Amino acid sequence: MFTDKIKTLPTKPGVYLMYDINDTVIYVGKAKNIKNRVSQYFQSSKA
Predict the structure, then answer these.
(1) Of residues 32 and 4, which shows the higher confidence score?
(2) Spatial separation of the C-alpha atoms in residues 31 and 11, rounded to whole Å
(3) What's the total number of domains in the chain?
(4) Which residues are registered as beta bridge partners of 25?
(5) Chain-centre distance of CA 21, in angstroms?
């Protein structure tokens, strides 16, 4: 699942791409720590 892939991400700065179901890029982001940024997208909301 996604959590297995997140564990392999680097903690270095960089850019990441998000794709839709048709493999079209829908978002380009940048982060100081790729692993932390991407894992935020998969955390459950406590609202």
Answers:
(1) 32
(2) 10
(3) 1
(4) 19
(5) 16
